[in-house]
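tokens incoming
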């Protein structure tokens, strides 16, 4: 029997730190401590060669349960729909109007952070709100 492995979710992006901090706000994640020997992340980046500066950033679940999110700078922009996306589970177990209200409340919290509400999918019982993050990556409030 195979052992369970940890998963890291990696995003290609233009601005790793900015996107990581957005997802910290969405998920309640935190930025990990800078590498040993550096008091701040700015100190760490200044210690790196120019071509490596601001090349990546990460955020982690403070409880240690959720996957680490890793953001790596790439030169090209996003050109197509994501093949995989995150579903942010904000209303598990809720149905109908109560579920829709919980999703809409979370949507209202994320829009000032730069998220975009694409549409509302609601059939009277189940609901899902497709969204875009600050770099146009799809995710759903579920």
């Amino acid at each position: 029997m195979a052992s369970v492995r940890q998963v890291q979710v990696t995003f290609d992006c233009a601005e790793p730190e900015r996107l990581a901090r957005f997802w910290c706000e969405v998920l309640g994640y935190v930025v990990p401590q800078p590498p040993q020997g550096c008091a701040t992340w700015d100190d760490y980046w200044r210690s790196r060669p120019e071509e490596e500066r601001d090349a990546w950033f990460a955020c982690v679940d403070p409880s240690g349960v959720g996957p680490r999110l890793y953001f790596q700078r790439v030169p090209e922009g996003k050109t197509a729909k994501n093949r995989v996306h995150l579903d942010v589970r904000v209303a598990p177990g809720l149905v109908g109007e109560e579920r829709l209200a919980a999703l809409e409340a979370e949507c209202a919290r994320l829009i000032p952070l730069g998220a975009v509400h694409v549409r509302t999918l609601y059939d009277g019982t189940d609901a899902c709100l497709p969204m875009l993050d600050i770099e146009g990556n799809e995710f759903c409030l579920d």
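note: The helical segments are 16-27, 41-47, 96-110.
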